[in-house]
Write a sequence for this structure.
């Protein structure tokens, strides 16, 4: 398969720059696997869930990972914190291969190595500093600076465990009221954690899809979840995953495409699973997701479940009807 097979043309005015006032007022395109399309509102999602089904969410929390400091020369440099590998030492992303000291407002400093790592002094107060001074890592296509409202809206209502540098955006549409309505139908709400890192949004630059390599991302799930999923499937109930990250955590574990260890009733580890057409899903029946960038790995995962032709036709329909795209945009349900 060619990466170019996952291309499509999107009018720039359909890229959502800000979220809607009410999360669950987003539109919901329902794509059946036979290609049939329905146009709904996200608040109608409970209509498609039945008692005994499992709705699986990603409870990872985005932190304000963008920090801007000054180099010894006086020039500004913005870094994106990716993950802390040891106390005070972070893997980072930067547009420059800078090596040297970087000073931040408020007497914080770090030594940057080749634009790839940052070693901070003042480690004890670093997390507080990040939340006070850092900016949310909005995707570049939003084309605006993040503000304080993004710290709440670029975050799911059920975000709990800090560690993501991008939101699991399918979950942005849920409200506490909608989750309560779903639970009232005796749908089992369960969570996993997958910290969204470079693996999720790393561009596919290869000509052939299967030549792309994903970066590993951390995940965690309760060890009893797999048994619950097996029992639900034996009872012919459906497994709904909210987002491609949730899907990758579950399928990465079930397919063995992971490095894991168990502790305190949980399974923890990393997965670099890359799901594209031809993959056999071990558990996931239906996917709630957003509209994704052309040639992206989340788009390819969605196509693996829905079928590429069906999916691209659905995107054509969404574009024709003025759906809002990407992180702050509308949603899709693949049934």
């Amino acid at each position: 398969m060619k990466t170019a097979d996952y291309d499509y043309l999107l009018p720039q005015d359909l890229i959502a720059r800000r979220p809607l006032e009410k999360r669950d007022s987003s539109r919901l395109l329902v794509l059946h696997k036979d290609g049939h399309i329905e146009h709904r509102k996200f608040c109608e999602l409970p209509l498609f869930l039945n008692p005994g089904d499992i709705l699986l969410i990603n409870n990872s929390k985005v932190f304000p990972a963008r920090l801007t400091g000054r180099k010894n020369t006086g020039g500004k440099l913005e870094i994106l914190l990716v993950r802390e590998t040891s106390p005070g030492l972070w893997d980072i992303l930067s547009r420059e291969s800078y090596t040297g000291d970087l000073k931040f407002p408020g007497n914080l400093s770090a030594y940057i190595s080749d634009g790839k790592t940052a070693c901070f002094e003042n480690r004890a107060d670093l997390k507080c500093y990040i939340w006070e001074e850092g900016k949310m890592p909005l995707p570049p296509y939003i084309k605006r600076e993040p503000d304080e409202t993004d710290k709440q809206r670029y975050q799911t209502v059920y975000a709990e465990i800090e560690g993501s540098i991008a939101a699991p955006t399918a979950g942005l549409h849920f409200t506490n009221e909608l989750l309560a309505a779903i639970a009232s139908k005796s749908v089992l709400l369960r969570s996993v954690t997958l910290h969204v890192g470079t693996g999720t949004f790393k561009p596919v630059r290869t000509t052939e899809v299967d030549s792309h390599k994903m970066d590993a991302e951390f995940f965690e799930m309760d060890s009893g979840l797999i048994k619950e999923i097996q029992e639900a499937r034996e009872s012919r109930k459906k497994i709904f995953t909210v987002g491609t990250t949730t899907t990758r955590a579950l399928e990465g574990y079930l397919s063995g495409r992971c490095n894991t260890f168990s502790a305190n009733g949980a399974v923890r580890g990393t997965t670099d699973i890359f799901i594209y057409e031809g993959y056999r899903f071990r558990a996931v029946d239906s996917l709630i997701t957003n509209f994704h960038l052309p040639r992206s790995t989340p788009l390819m995962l969605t196509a693996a479940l829905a079928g590429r032709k069906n999916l691209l036709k659905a995107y054509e329909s969404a574009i024709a009807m003025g759906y809002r795209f990407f992180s702050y945009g509308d949603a899709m349900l693949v049934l």
